[in-house]
Amino acid sequence: MHKFLKASTATLALAVAATGANADGHALSGDLVIFSDMSNPAPRATMEDMAARFGEMHPDLNIELTIIDREAYKTQIRNFLTANTPDVANWYAANRMRPYVDAGLFEDISDVWEGTLSEELASTKGAMTLDGKQWGVPYTYYQWGVYYRKDIYEELGLKEPATFDEMKSNCQAILDSGKKCYTIGTKFLWTAGGWFDYLNMRTNGYDFHSELMAGKHKWDSDEVRATFANWRELLDMGAFVDNHTSYSWQESLPFIVSGEAAAILKGNFAVAPLREAGLDDSKLDFYQFPSINGDVALAEDAPTDTFHIPSGAANKDNAKAFLKFVTSAENQTLINNGANLGQLPVNANSSVDDDKFLKEGFEMLSSNSPGGVAQFFDRDAPAEMAKVGMEGLQEFMVKPDNLDKILARLDKAAERIYK
Amino acid sequence: MADTTVSTGTSQRSWYKRNEIAVTPWLFLIPGIIFFMVYVIIPIFQSFYYSTLSWDGLGEPQNIGMANYAELWDDDAFYTSLWNNFIWLALYLLAIPAGLFIALLLNQTIWGIRLYKSLFFFPFVISQVVVGLVFGWFYDPTFGLFNIALGAIGLGPINVLGDEAYVTYGIIAAGLWPQTAYCMILYLTGLNAVDPEQIEAARLDGAKRLKMLWYVVVPQLKPATFIAFVVTIIGALRSFDLISIMTNGGPFGSSRVLSFYMFEVALSEYGFRMGYGAAIAVVLFLIMLVFITYFLYSMYNEEKGR
Amino acid sequence: MFPTPIEKSTPGVQVAYKVMLPVALLVWLAPLLAVALFSIKPDADFTTGNYWGLPSSFEGFTNYGLVFGSDMPRYMLNSILITVPTMIGCVILSSMTGFALGIYKFKANIWVFFMFVAGNFVPFQILMVPVRDLTLDMGLYNTIPGLVLFHIAFQTGFCTLFMRNFIRALPFELVEAARVEGISEFRIFWFVIMPLMKPALAAMAVLIFTFIWNDYFWAVVLTQGVESQPVTAGITSFNAQFRAAYHLMSAGSIVAALPPVAMFFLMQKHFIAGLTLGAVK
């Protein structure tokens, strides 16, 4: 990692010098405390490198970086926002940040967004906006879609499906060959949220979906039932691997690696572990989730990960400079490239890394997602609703006959949560 | 040494000296009581208060009276947890006879038996986090030994931890492993105290194995049984680690117990309801109170009997 | 078997017993043996489906090397920094409370004792929210002292029960004799009772060590980072990082489990002696 750190700093020496000059104009001093949830190996290296480069631009600045396990971070953030406050903290966009915004724990940083930044980050500005103000900056986002075994599809003579019917007929062919169509691990629930997002956005469109997430529709409605009916078709075919309630998403990957399952609906972060497990580009490919209802425009999930300034931060000026640095075009190009996060840069002036999946994803999001871009089930819905909802989705996948009970339960929860 | 104490023992004894026997226990008790008050007793009452609040742990709390309890009354997840708690209570007690059985098995004097006793005690020393992990693999539907064994006798496969019908039992089985070891060691020490003469007398009266066990040995083990009962009940109601590691409450919340559910609603990833969590804790406390009362009552009787 | 001593049974039964014991032990410890086996396997064995067979190559050094190269040593150190002071604190506090409640007869005695016992039986989840807030208010959130203070306080309930019962069982004449000699109460505590408490203290120390080392719940509630979390929390974040890497998770688990095991074996003699004398009364 050390070697890598040096190499990337060297190549970027020029860019860094340039950014340093125009982003802040002067060298910073004092302290900057960063809490980060980028604990997986690659993101961790990226984050450490990013802090180191910022430190080089500001030699007098004392940067303290604490990286916390990504899962643990989700429960710990509320503690450190009220006590032991850092100057900069990672989090997620949209409704996922609402509890902290409502409690006054995130700083309103609309001033950072003034001017050119709003144009450069136009695509994600909506996700960072609540009550007309901006509460943080994005640093990366990634597409969702179906990652599939190209070799298996070729062997069976299948093509990437464009419609739900093709999706189902493909699936039948795969099932007939003794494999499962999709692998999934629902132990931690959210993976089922991805399936619901897509099925619902394809069946009822982006607007309905986002209104449902905002509590403006009943769960027990014809629209939502239509979504579940589509899902049920796949379930009844036996499209998903068995026993998925026992697996985390990582534990569900071996099925696609071994060829027991032909595809997975997942965010682009699945590419790295799949490649590492031996699926090179001749075996792994990507397609956009096919259209179901021809009357609604295609829309995608593209979750955005973010940086925020807690309102209790001690060094807000330094923190703001850091956020500007994070979102700058050069830094965005670097941290999102294949050697680092392997995701999409949020700055319009950045370049997307020359990687098959990133290019395809970028293309899809910028030109083939006219319906809109959603964050993700558990970021669009309020936290409690997301929890109850995803549990219902998991139950539906195992016991589709319980649908009436599940919908009634969700409506009951919604009534309390959205009041 | 004797000199100094004698010289102070005159008529001019200080107040402390005169009241030494009455004051000393309190001097010894004060640090312990303060600690215990601050961290245990007062928080119990605070929890009662919190349970009347609507509070996300971040902003300003709002007093909502009994609304949390009213909601509990109508919460399916709460009943699932409550029911699972009863299953835990009932089945966890199996650790007591199982522990007794192993203790009887090991209560011999052959070469190396000390090592055997220690090794049988092993599971208790290991963190439940590790126990949960290991049993998770044991139950794994793809490669777990459990399903291999089932397959060998022509059954299965069963996805124990992913099936709402089996999941709680699967976790309890994992919990019984260390708990049985704990009960075993309690009984082993208890067996040391069994009076050999009574056994001999019973043998002369012609008492045979099971009868001997039930009418002669077990009554003498009553103190050990009492402690085993106490620690097992406490363990059953506190069960959290195993559930959190093995299933995270799933599938779809079917393996929750009250202690896990309250953590989930109050502090987990999607939980922001301190008041609701406290209300669940209060219910759990009330259940426990039944047992606490019983424990204290039997201890009180024993004290009086002395 | 019990109460018939095995020596008195037929040779056939004796042999059967001696054969059965190691087999029973193997079955009893099978889950642990599996983890030990996993921990020396190469990654490849899991992708090829060789879960329970012999390792195709010995990768113990690589796997354990990775564990020690991660944050695990730091978590272990934290665990020690949490467990040892807690142990010491509990021993001090509870030998005092146990002495007071075991030796002196005063009206409130039984009620104070019951307070400790009842508090010890409380499902500790009920303390979660208030204790977390208290720790936050004291500025001890996410610090080792914050966790230690709570553990000492909570374990005092159990330890007081343990020590008090033990001291009750000591011959009271000793104290009376000392009082007749005019020895002060503090000296009775220190020179008369303390030396007799040693086996009980040893047993209790082992139990406390085990309880605290293996605590997961409070580690999650009161601490949050590698600078203060104990190894039980560390192993879960280690596992999160290497999810589905069974060989590494196994190695990590073994490392995390070793100290209480070592502690138990070191103190085994005192532990059993202490339990026999005190706890089961």
What does this structure look like?
The complex is a heterotrimer of chains A (about 425), B (about 300) and C (about 280). Helix content of chain A is about 50%, strand content about 15%. Chain A has 20 helices and 13 strands. In chain A, helix 11 packs antiparallel against helix 12 (about 220-235) and helix 19 packs antiparallel against helix 20. The N and C termini of chain A lie far apart (about 50 Å). Residues about 1-25 of chain A have low confidence and may be disordered. In chain B, strand 1 and strand 2 (about 60-65) form a beta hairpin. Chain B has a two-stranded antiparallel ribbon. Chain B has 16 helices and two strands. Chain B is mainly α and about 300 residues long. Chain B has one domain (about 75-305): Orthogonal Bundle (MetI-like fold), CATH 1.10.3720.10. Chain C has about 280 residues and is mostly helical. Chain C is built from 13 helices and no strands. The mean pLDDT of chain C is about 85. The chains are: A alpha/beta (about 425), B mainly alpha (about 300), C mainly alpha (about 280). Chains B and C meet through helix 1, helix 3, helix 7, helix 8 and helix 10 of B and helix 1, helix 2, helix 5, helix 6 and helix 7 of C.
CATH topology of the largest domain in chain C: MetI-like fold
Q: Find the CATH superfamily of chain B.
A: MetI-like
Q: Overall pLDDT of chain C, averaged?
A: 85
Domains of chain C, number: 2
